[in-house]
Design brief:
By secondary structure, the chain is an alpha/beta fold. The protein has a single domain, classed as Rossmann fold. The chain is built from 6 helices and 5 strands. Strand 3, helix 3 and strand 4 form a beta-alpha-beta unit. Helix 2 packs parallel to helix 3. The N and C termini lie close together (12 Å).
Length: 141
């Protein structure tokens, strides 16, 4: 999983909460260019992008579109301090995308991530790493 969030405190909180759940292997990016650089450098698959809708230089949607052009199996969960209605109303996101409103509770974050990953269509590869899998892969980041 990759978290693309320009606000360090939000990015770190999300990473800590997801890693504490024991299942998620979390990579981080502070801006879109950094997020785009993570994919080719990372040895294993990244099956979820958790991205802020409003990012410096390009939107989270544009970032997701660019990443999906090269990695079509990538699932995306958007987050924003704006409500999902406001985001949809202003045409930033489509109404059927996975969305999490900030601020969020750790349980809500874990639940939404799980929903997105569990909704992956059959035949589409997913490869989140478990804590046991991560133990030997720490040098891959």
């Amino acid at each position: 999983m990759l978290i693309a969030e320009d606000e360090a405190s939000v990015r770190e909180l999300a990473r800590d909460r997801l890693e504490a759940s024991g299942y998620y292997y979390v990579l981080e990016a502070a801006h879109p260019d950094e997020a785009r650089a993570v994919f080719p450098r990372h040895a294993g698959p990244i099956d979820l992008l958790l991205t802020d809708v409003i990012m410096p230089w390009i939107s989270g949607r544009e970032l997701a579109d660019r990443l999906r052009a090269e990695w079509p199996a990538l699932e995306v969960l958007y987050m924003s301090g704006y409500t999902d209605r406001a985001i949809v109303h202003h045409g930033v996101l489509d109404p059927d995308v996975a969305f999490l409103e900030k601020p969020f509770a750790a349980a809500d974050l874990r639940r939404k991530v799980r929903e997105v990953l569990d909704a992956t269509p059959p035949g589409r590869a997913r490869a989140s790493r478990s804590a046991a899998d991560r133990a030997g892969a720490l040098d891959e980041v």
